Amino acid sequence: MGLQQKLTHWCNAGIITSSQVEAIQSYESGHAKTGWRYGLIFLAVLAIGVGFALIVASNWDAISWQIKLGLHAVINLGLALWLINRYDRISRNIAPDMVDVPLEIGIFFLWVLVLTFMALNGQIFQLSGTAEELLRVWFWITAPMIAWFARSKYILTPFAALLGFYVFYEIDHFIRLIYQHELNWLNYAYAVFIPVLFFCAGSELQRHHVKLLLGRIFIMLATVFAILAASTMASFTRWYVPESDMVMRTLPYALMLAILIIGFIHPRFILPEQKTRFQLLLFAGGIILLPGILPFANTVFSALLFTALWLGVGYYGKRENEVKLVDLCVVLIAIRIYVAFWELFGTMLQTGVGLIAAGVILLCFIYASNRIRLKLRNWSQT
Amino acid sequence: MKPSIQRSIAMLFILLPVLAISGQAIFLADQKLQIPVQQVVITGYDPRDALMGHYLNFRYDWDNAASQKPHLPYLPANGRFYIPEKNSLALEQALRDRAKQCKIAYQIIAHEVRPVDLLIDNKPWREAIQN
CATH assignment of B36-128? Predict the structure, then answer.
């Protein structure tokens, strides 16, 4: 059914009035024209851009370095000025979190163009830096621009992931510069405190209703990172903690306690709707830190920690009614128990009977985990 | 936040990367045009690093009589030079020819040796591979 038919139908049914029909028709017709016009402008600009790029590419070696640099600078500057102009116009008309597609595409292009300009500088002036250094400088120099302008998840998600990575990287770099040697205990401090930091940043953005999407992405990344870190690091933590250094041994726990106090005693810091997620984050942190203070660490213990962590995640999934998360927890716990079984009874593989037993046990695990998964799914749906 | 402040922040954030990199390019271009160029013999050119693709990797021969040694506390042992892909084959053949002497024309910028050009038998490489 076309729009016109739908409108007539709704009007006859008394859902909308005839004046509303006229308003909708005039809005739609205005929009349709705008859509076509933008589509054609986009095609024309694309054709010009591609043609220009082809000419430049085929004559690349013949173009002098001054022209290459000058042209790139002009393109970057032109795009930047257009973006400022566009931002000026749209910021008055649309809500702070609404996506303006041309602005979003423009920001993405400028992000990439800054990188290509830096690479061009390196190529022309034969700079001795590595690609790693180039990317690091590029990220930090463009970070305020992306954080301020970008509004879609397609740009903000990779940006937030890169931000997480580079925050780690810079702290690590700084510490190594001061201490001149590796401090492995920091690895788990990162795994606990950086997600908490991200969580708080995300929570603050949400509280002030600024960059709501970025806030959500920060919180999601913080939780995912904490769970992944806890899954992989819990069994190694004990070896990261220097036995002799009591300050370093206790510092992470003191910080953890401070976070607990901030998070729970002072409710101003955590939004009520984020409380469960924050608890999950702290739970993951506790799992990472636990082996550091316990006097023993072995295979069974690390399997138990892993299982405890994913039971916690599963509980969260059940509370939040996230069925897929519950499924994932059941599967991961089943796999971990099976791995633990092999860690303890691995020598069985040397005999034919042992192999058969292993196969049978694996089938039992699959069957049991599937049953539990279905049961939990029904449970969370009721 | 006031719209004028918002606009100023937006302008600062968007112009910062553009102007910083343009500024770097202007600074480097100025250095390239002003600072005198010296030459150093290069040796031990292996086939180009497969991972880096476009770069020729080499060793500096600072003690060679034909090299102009800069007054620096630290002299790099190795260097690399960007080569356009389409010239790589011809250049590789020229570099493997032991009868030819290869040099790097360089400048000292910020206490660093910065390659400017590759010379084969004292000719810029573009000219040399055409003959």
Answer: 2.40.50
Answer yes or no: do B16 and A87 touch at CB < 8 A. Answer: no
Residue A5 pLDDT exceeds 90: no
- Compute the distance between CA of residue A322 and CA of residue A381 in angstroms, rounded to an integer: 10
CA distance B100 to chain A (A): 23
Whether the model clears a pTM of 0.90, i.e. scores above it, the answer is no
Asked if B22 lies within 8 A of A80 by C-beta distance, the reply is no
Residue ranges of domains in chain B: 1-34, 36-128
State phi, psi for B35 to the nearest 5 degrees: -80, 135
Give yes or no for A109 touching B (CB within 8 A). Answer: no
Q: What's the whole-number average pLDDT of chain B?
A: 81
Q: What is the pLDDT of residues A284-343, one digit of tens each?
A: 777 776 766 665 566 677 778 788 888 888 888 787 777 777 888 888 888 887 777 777
User: How close B12 gets to chain A, by Cα (Å)?
Assistant: 8
Q: Which of residues 323-382 of A touch B (CB under 8 A)?
A: none
Q: Over 90: is that where the pLDDT of B71 sits? A: no
Is the separation of the CB atoms in A126 and B115 below 8 Å? yes
The burial of A221, by beta-carbon neighbours within 10 Å (0-12 exposed, 13-18 middle, 19 or more buried), is given as buried
Query: Is the interface score ipTM higher than 0.85?
Result: no
CB-CB neighbors (< 8 A) of B6 in chain A: 91
Sign of CA dihedral A95, A100, A105, A107: negative
Q: Which among B13, B14, B28 has CB closest to A125?
A: B28
